Amino acid sequence: MNSDSSTILGSISGQDSGQNSGKESPLGAGKPMPAVAGAEIASLLDEPARRVWWRRWSVWLAAAAVPLAVGGAYAWRAYRINAAAPVYSTEAVTRGNLTLTVTANGTIQPTRSISVGSELSGTVLKVNVDVNDRIRKGQVMVVLDTAKLRDQILRSQASLASAVGKAAQTAATVKEAQAALSRLEEVARLSGGKVPSKAELDTGKATLARAIADDASARAGIRDAQAALSTDQINLSKASIVAPTDGVVLTRTVDPGNAVAASLQAVTLFTVAEDLRKLRLWVYVDEADVGAVKEGQDATFTVSAYATRNFPARITRVGLGSTITDNVVTYLTYLDVDNSDLSLRPGMTATASITAGRRQNVLLVPNSALRFMPGSALSAATAKQGIASSLLPRMPGMSTRKSAAASASTATAKQVWILSRDGVPQPVAVTPGISDGHLTEIVGGQLQAGMQVITDQKTLAK
Known about the structure:
This protein has seven helices and 19 strands.
């Protein structure tokens, strides 16, 4: 403060002190200086006047910053929750037709396949047919060397002649023994039993009995020789192997000069298919699908040779016995195939699609909807719903309502998930029926056509 200001303050103070010494201040003793005096002093000192607190800009700036900060925090939290909320893929529930198909692999076989072999051992002399040849019943296919067989027939014929000659001798012996015994008996009658002796009569009777027995043995020898001769003649006939039926030769495993050794079982020389216009498809149905496969069901199949063509077939037999291959249980199933154009061949590998069931105008949902289960995303969606509700107190006793699917039987019922109005997945109880691998029939539950079921959940944003 300068000297002029000090002088002014001093004079003012002197005046005030003089006045106060003479009489009492009108404001009263001990009372503060009036505001006018303070203002005059401020004006004399050239100092700016103080502002009222509610007129200060810093107060208003601080007051505006508080709601902005709260709003920013709320917006940031909402943004983070929205970023973490899942995005669901949905599909509409529809009505339509559904066909249940069972797929099985197998091979095409002839309806009746015959293995032609040889019962005899010997050397192949001639082969008259080859693979793919059409044969007629009774046609000679293979001829074996018959030299040994003819010698055996000659031997059997000689044995038969010997047996016949021996039988003639025994017959003559029988007649001779009968005549000798008759003479002895006549002598004994005429002599009154004196001659011959009883021993001579017994000897005569024994001789006749032996002659009769020898004659019976000789006749049996004839029959044995005849049987041996007949067997040799049959073997000779079997040396020429003939076709047992009309058909087509599929395989051939013999050539002229080969030695055929028939021991305990006949050697297979040819495989003959009776009729290639009718074939049979052998497929192996998995144990999980065999319950839906029955006789009379229609099917189609494809082969590699005609990849774009579907051949019709019909099931004629479902095997009861199982076949285990690499720990997989399957059941052999026969399907009859019409091959009038002879385009199919035995041995082809086929993939069959069996129509095991049809449904008309049924409720259909994607299989992915039945497999879907919301995970941690559900809690994120719940957190989104609770932004405002988390600030409010909850009523006591409030809890999440248990869904109907939670109490349904897991053996006959499942659940699908739909989105509520606020975007939270909600379960809906359903009872599935048959499935074609993509769509599943819904036979019961609370689902209706047009509802959007959740099929997938996209990756959460970070």
